Amino acid sequence: MEPFTALWLSVAQSVSLSLSPFSQCNIVRLSTHRGATALIAVIGTDDITGLGYWYVLFPVLSGVLIMLSISLIFNNMKCFLKSYQATTNVLF
Questions:
Q1: Checking CA distances to 2, which of 54, 66, 71, 85 falls within 20 to 30 Å?
Q2: Where is the HPP transmembrane region domain (predicted)?
């Protein structure tokens, strides 16, 4: 059997290798997004698998940068934080 020709083996290896460093470092929050990103890279369509390592740069890195920029914007909005803090006591 040639390496990575069996789809089930490559799927298992990609998901386990993406989650194992967090498990070894005792990071409790194992997010399924890490495993899903590795899974999509392996079982994706020909367009996705054809990207190779560029898959990490374009879809994944752009998604991370968009989420980071939105979180920084909301973190620095003082008026939003004040209204949020005022309503938390009412909701809980």
A1: 54
A2: 7-78
